[in-house]
């Protein structure tokens, strides 16, 4: 599974960082950054939570 | 020509129920029972507002998230159909970007997101811990009973947002009083407008000082945008006003109402009192945000193009109200929703809203609440309500729910 982030949709809520700190971070303006686009399987639940709580639908998990 | 009167006389439809609805007298932590019934019956229903308008009320979680995530739905209070909370405040401007749509909303919001990033907020945790410990020291030096709202719940977020913005805390009595008036539904439009203009004037002056002499605070950041020509003085003032108001009234109510809810659920309070596990404390914060619902008048929007939600078409120009407190009690998402359970995973609540307008200050609010809930009951394990629950005055008359006072002893 691969994580896709559309940073221009991001509203800097920080929810993805709280859900999956190993996969997401924020830049100086609070906009989400992807640290790892193919996270280890044990991080998948966290990433799915990040997808679910992102208020701006900026994160997707896709088969590759 | 067919006689149009020959058919059956159409029945007058049942009048739409009035919104907001009253809570049950003995259940100050629960949403109004009528909201629960509406949620069971249908995802959408018409309700009648103070001005006679009949917007749609959305009660279920999935449909609320769909509406709030839809770009054809506007937060602009001037749009036709926007369901207003009360008569317009005389002379009051817009409360900055929370009442705007993209792209202007995004442009302005991004000017002030930086200090609310998770890691920057985390760096403030030791300072917030010191504030909380200091206020608890002050409490313990007294013999009680003490009003926890005045002595603890309000000062914490006020001190923090003042520090972040660069507003002198010495002026807090003035803007706390004005903010109280601004969020009181029973205040006249003139009173609300005057209160809002007073604080706006005060902030405009401070912004002027920061334009002349920038410091290392958020007001100076906003002032810098004025200097750069990205926003004008009025926009800067509205932005500062939004941050100041949103930064203290909400968190203060969560601190006091959350403490009361815990005192009324001693088994849950014991979990917090007996732990130093930050994960449990974080989980408790999410559950209290879900279970309580301080923004109890619904999030409101105007629909700009026809959309279909929950099998119902909402027409362009119609209003829609999202009662987030009942979505947070939707049994489809939160099993046994009316039970306060600090150990459940409540992270998907919509207490901060959803969509592009979701609360900007949520990382700060979470951190402050984690420090408070993780400290207060451990340091004062005998904390108790110093009056009967029936004597506590709840803020049914305010835009933001909570308690007016919370007399406690230990």
TrEMBL record, chain A:
<dbReference type="Pfam" id="PF13459">
    <property type="entry name" value="Fer4_15"/>
</dbReference>
<keyword id="KW-0813">Transport</keyword>
<comment type="function">
    <text>Ferredoxins are iron-sulfur proteins that transfer electrons in a wide variety of metabolic reactions.</text>
</comment>
<dbReference type="InterPro" id="IPR001080">
    <property type="entry name" value="3Fe4S_ferredoxin"/>
</dbReference>
<keyword id="KW-0249">Electron transport</keyword>
<keyword id="KW-0003">3Fe-4S</keyword>
<keyword id="KW-0411">Iron-sulfur</keyword>
<keyword id="KW-0479">Metal-binding</keyword>
<dbReference type="InterPro" id="IPR051269">
    <property type="entry name" value="Fe-S_cluster_ET"/>
</dbReference>
<protein>
    <recommendedName>
        <fullName>Ferredoxin</fullName>
    </recommendedName>
</protein>
<keyword id="KW-0408">Iron</keyword>
